[in-house]
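Morning F.,

Quick status update on the modeling queue. The single chain you submitted on Monday has been processed. Sequence for confirmation:
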Amino acid sequence: MPWMEVTMPTSDAAVKQQLIASLNQEFIDATGFEDEILYIRFSEFEAGTAGAAGQLAQDKNFAHLILYTPRMRFDVKRSVVAGLTKSFELAGIKPLIHILEFPYDNIGFDGQLLTDADEELASRPYYFVLPR
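Structure tokens below.
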């Protein structure tokens, strides 16, 4: 259950729809996850209202992205970061990306852990290797 939270400058619906399609496809291409599995949530801020220091303060079009995902190999992480960055660059935005990895027994849904609800997920080790 990969999940992405994006904090970025306020954008129109067309930009967000383009980002959703591109981010999802880049994630699928890099990881081998099945199509349309990624959930993306946007939080937006008005230009000039976000506090920033250093280099990001010079660039008004930046985004902060947090990706929650099962553990990925180093080469897959490299591909994910490159692909997600490419998606944002098409919208003129520079992303800062954090990858937070988790085992499936750290996720609760509908009152139970995913590993209790799904035998296949329960059999996966924390260091689950994605298809790619």
